[in-house]
Write a structure and sequence with these properties.
Blueprint: E1 3-8, E2 13-20, E3 23-31, H1 43-65, E4 74-80, H2 84-101, E5 105-109, H3 110-116, E6 133-138, E7 143-148, E8 154-159, H4 165-175, H5 183-190, H6 213-229, H7 233-236, H8 238-264, E9 268-272, H9 279-292, E10 295-297, H10 308-320
Parallel strand pairs: 1-4, 4-5, 6-9, 9-10
Antiparallel strand pairs: 1-2, 2-3, 6-7, 7-8
Helix pairs in contact: 1-2, 3-10, 4-6, 4-8, 5-8, 8-9
């Protein structure tokens, strides 16, 4: 039996969670609104906000869990990848906190944590995925098809060779001046649009790898030509544009994922990462499940974005293996 405090500070969300073995007791997230006016995350502002948020977030997580810090058995933290300044805040706090309590440290890879979020137990009847299974990890910075043989034996089957899917969605939103973050706005507007109104070029990449830079360029040039003829084109066709670019990206993602899953003959599939909150992606993976009789795992929305609960579950499995970190380990960005 173990109590693990986990810290996540890889980008612009400061989060702390407490797990009792694999059961989540508390998950607290402090988001940063300051970046909205800049249209993206400003690293220096993010690290300053983490310094402001980290102590109250950890304090609230412990109070929500109903435990005292002296009951903790380990501290897990996101070591990377992420923004260096943001990571330094979480890593430094985790090291100091663990050393003060005399308990071990557990370093966690942010991407592995997203995938392992499917093992967080939030109810007695929840059944996590069985190995092997395949996961589509999709976020603003990463896009990967991963075959899991065990909790930490993850084989990358395919990945983006340039931009990530989430970045492409956010860039499309920025082109249309929809604000930041743009992904949720596109998802919301797309519900009222025609996904077949427009088509955009998708690259022909061999194997299971992805490329999204061409989709962004195709969308940009399409709007440039239309705006030259009709200055209010975006405003008049916003819903259809959102629905069409969303369908283009999601279809491209799932087409390769379906091929990879069939090739490796898995019977269970999952999605993870920030873009796994996208309604079109969630419905698309569900449709593939019905088509092939796959068991499909989609994370609850609180586990889609960056959160400490996913760091905690990864830390729990490392704790069982006695896989502890040296206090001298630095964070890493890539």
């Amino acid at each position: 039996m173990s109590y693990i405090l986990s810290i996540e500070s890889s980008c612009d969300d400061t989060s702390a969670a407490v797990l009792h073995d694999d059961r989540l007791l508390a998950n607290v997230i402090a988001s940063q609104k300051v970046h909205e006016q800049y249209g993206g995350v400003v690293p220096e502002l993010a690290s300053r906000a983490h310094q402001h948020n980290i102590v109250p977030v950890v304090d609230k997580a412990l109070r929500d869990a109903g435990i005292d810090k002296r009951q903790l058995d380990a501290v897990a933290f996101t070591r990377g990848p992420g923004l260096l300044g943001s990571l330094l805040v979480g890593v430094s706090f985790a090291k100091s906190f663990a050393q003060a309590l005399g308990i071990p440290l557990i370093e966690v890879n942010h991407l592995q944590a997203h995938v392992l979020s499917h093992f967080i137990r939030t109810s007695d009847d929840y059944q996590p995925p069985q190995f092997p299974f395949m996961c589509l990890l999709v976020s603003g910075g990463h896009t990967q098809i991963i075959l899991l043989h065990s909790h930490f034996d993850m084989e990358i089957i395919g990945q983006t060779i340039d931009d990530a899917a989430g970045e492409a969605i956010d860039k499309a939103a920025k082109i249309m001046d929809l604000g930041y973050p743009g992904g949720p706005v596109i998802d919301r507007l797309a519900k009222d649009g025609n996904p077949d109104a427009y088509t955009f070029a998708t690259p022909q990449i061999q194997g299971y790898d992805y490329s999204f830079s061409g989709i962004k360029t195709s969308f940009l040039y399409f709007l440039r030509d239309r705006l030259a003829e009709e200055p209010d084109y975006i405003e008049r066709h916003k819903a259809d544009l959102c629905a069409s670019i969303q369908k283009c990206i999601v279809s491209f993602l799932l087409k390769k994922f379906e091929r990879a899953a069939l090739k490796h003959r898995v019977r269970q599939v999952a999605i993870a990462g920030g873009v796994s909150a996208n309604s079109a992606l969630r419905s698309g993976i569900a449709e593939l499940g019905r088509k092939h009789q796959w068991k499909v795992y989609t994370p609850t929305l609180q586990f889609c974005t960056d959160n400490a609960a996913m760091v905690g579950i990864a830390g729990y499995f490392k704790y069982l293996n006695g896989d502890f970190a040296d206090i001298a380990l630095p964070p890493y960005t890539n």
